[in-house]
Specification:
Length: 114
């Protein structure tokens, strides 16, 4: 077998892996692109959440956490841990926005407890 035949046989054996460093760099660039896209989408989601005005009439199935009865009647650590909006479970970001309205949280908590 000639040298060229041996080289051809060896490159055939390697197949698509003849440039492992190039492949690794390509994967790194793809990962960086994916991370940039994920960051962009996260920022856009936050902007959209900020634009949403919650119509409290459609908030249902409210569950609470952080209830400390020794803190009654303030219950300042209580928060809404899950709820539905238009019968769809709210994401954490919307729950955070909902919990910012402490008057709403307190009113619903009192109804929940009593």
């Amino acid at each position: 077998m000639t040298t060229n035949e041996k080289i051809n046989e060896f490159t055939d054996f390697l197949g698509d892996h003849t440039d492992p460093i190039g492949e690794q760099q390509k994967k790194i660039k793809e990962e960086e692109s994916f991370q940039k896209l994920a960051k962009f989408l996260d920022e856009q989601q936050k902007k959209l959440i900020d634009l949403i005005e919650i119509d409290y009439e459609y908030v249902t199935d409210i569950e609470f956490d952080g209830i400390d009865h020794s803190d009654a009647p303030d219950y300042c650590d209580a928060y809404i841990c899950s709820a539905c909006y238009h019968d769809i479970e709210m994401c954490d970001e919307l729950l955070d926005k909902l919990n910012e309205d402490r008057d709403f949280v307190y009113d619903k908590l009192i109804n929940y407890l009593y």
